[in-house]
Here is the input.
Amino acid sequence: MTLESTISIEGPWGLLRRLREAMATPLSTQERLDKIVGDIAEHMGADVCSAYFRKGNDELELFATKGLNPEAVHQTRLGWGEGLVGQIAATGKLLNLPDAQTHPNFAYKPETGEELFHSFLGVPLLRGGRLLGVLVVQNQSERTYGPQDVEALQTVGMVFAELIAAGEVLIPDSSLVEGLRFDTPLRLRGTALADGIVVGHAVLHQPRVEVTRLIADDLDKELERLEDAVADLREDVDALVASDEYNFAGESADVLEAYRMFAHDRGWLERMREAVNDGLTAEAAVEKVMADTRKRLVNSPDAYLKERLNDFEDLSNRLLRLLIGTSNLPGLPEDGVIVARNMGPAELLDYDRSKLKGVVLEEGSATAHVTIVARALDLPLVGSAKDVVDLVEPGDVMIVDGESGDVHLRPQDDVLDVYRHKLELRTARQAQYHSDRGLPSVTKDGLEIALDINAGLLVDLPHLQETNAAGIGLFRTELQFMIGATMPRVPAQTDVYRKVLDAAEGRRVVFRAVDLGSDKVLPYLATTKEENPALGWRAVRLALDRPALLHYQIRAFLQAAAGRELNLMFPLIAEVAEFKAAREVFDREVARCKRFGHPLPSKVRLGTMLEVPSLAWQLDALLPLVDFVSIGSNDLFQFLFAWDRGNPKLTGRYDPLSPTVFAFLRNVVEKAAAYNVPLSLCGEMAGKPIEAMALIGLGLRRISMPPASVGPVKAMIRSLDVAKLTPIMGPLLTSGEHSVRDVLINFAQDNGIVIE
Ligand code: PEP
Ligand code: MG
Here is the structure.
């Protein structure tokens, strides 16, 4: 028979008060544990309550029980994933079973006498994402534990985990603490999200705010403390959003606005109030709701929701600090490397810029708000560094390699030496590039090659001056759309484009119409799941199907460029008809401008990207219509080779330095020259010296690249003799080889060409 249980009539608060009594009574550790499990069993009307704790990294041991055979204490052990308790440990999820013995994972341990018990409720004891143990209640009857029981056991489990972590419940002979401490060197392979290298000292972004008072004495008072702290938090966040201290002019303000919305979320406050009503102090309630939310969202397949988890954790930690009154942020050493599971953009902005040198995240993604802000602040950032928060100790020496995505924890001297050397070289190289910035981008035999930079945010603009680039060869306008909580309106778009043109001071800027879809997703635009997003509803396809978006954007371009030259290109054009359709939208906006008597750009040049191979077969029809063409090698190569560039199994499968690519590009170069249409290339390829050399060999005279590449590419150009390179290119087009990289490297080495 299954009984619905509502036995815990006192609610969790009564149980918590008993827990506090147990803590205050002078008892040995084992006696205290025994008392606690006894109290829980009694309070919940359970025949059994057992506490299992983690031993080392992959075992759980029964430390205390009321109801199971006492002989089993310190004898019964379960491997990670073994039995129901092991399953809870491995998954971090509770189990509520009316008849545990029929569960496929039930593991019979004869020494416990467990066979008498049917119903089973177990919760993980988690602290800061680390599993400390498992708390279980059992009954002989087939009882379904009700929501109140689950809530009670979870709440008491959370308090229990805090007490253990705070050292208030000492676990004899436990390797809990040692098992979680690390002092050996480790290398983690993450994802390089923001360029740069730093050797610094680890600072945990969220050092545990010690919640020492867990159980409420007076619920009304705790509720009042919670409400007051939330009000203060909202005020702080509103002030942060309103402040112009971080003048990112537009884009980061949108990011912060999203953050503010979360601070005002009513559901969040409601859940914390409920936790206080269950008997927790305000600070313990904040922790509990943070842990619950994390558990719910961390495995969510929805990337947007997962990223929002950071905002919640960020806010929860701020709230904790407000309640406990400690200073907001850990102090930074002179070379602080922030380590976090993830973080909100506002938190990064809170740190002292002069001491913050790098960031490592367990999560993070190229489009996460915090990444965009880190790049803006010129901080190396590595994401997807698995378990780094658990593996690092504050103060550890660490290396963040934002070029390769490697993170070294507690590196040995030889690794440190390698990196010190790498850093010295990098610094020297950068100093050299900087001092060479005034030198012309001209080959040894006098051929001028225009070097542009790729940009997408206002914070990229100082790079124009720093690199002394010819202009901006690709301004990715979609970034402004991607970092905001809402679609930027025409005035906001106009403002950004105007600032870009102002900063360019007359250098040529090529704007690209919004290139959304595929991996460039908008948080606020619901899209349907696509089988092949890279081949899907994206870029100009999306823009032509939703012409309002394109109309508004073109309106913003026209306003921003009034009286100046406007260069605009459309992404992912696959056929001439698409270019014509996009141009029609443009023409209609120009006509509208004229109708209203608005000033127009002094000159308009409309072009297209060449990213889809089909377009290369229509050049005779296309070239007479366009003012310029820019080859987008990133997308082009994935379509040319049917090569998913995001698939790690295919990394390095094909080489852009190959006869296929060369023959393709040579054809485009010749056609463009025949029609006298300016041609450039703006994919990542252009930023690598050896690739850039090949492009010049194929006849390109203008290339656009990430700002950091301008120095190395210019050094290559200034050491190159094109007259020597051109003759070796011809045979490579028909060589039939997988790659001709070695031929080009040998050529560079033999001729003293700088390709570092
Ligand atoms: C390209 O595809 O080469 C390109 C420059 O566009 P994006 O990288 O923005 O897709
Ligand atoms: Mg592209």
Notes: Residues 298 and 306 are 6 Å apart (CA to CA). Confidence is low (pLDDT under 50) at residues 1-9, 177-181, 244-251. The chain has four domains: 3-177, 186-207+330-426, 219-324, 436-750.
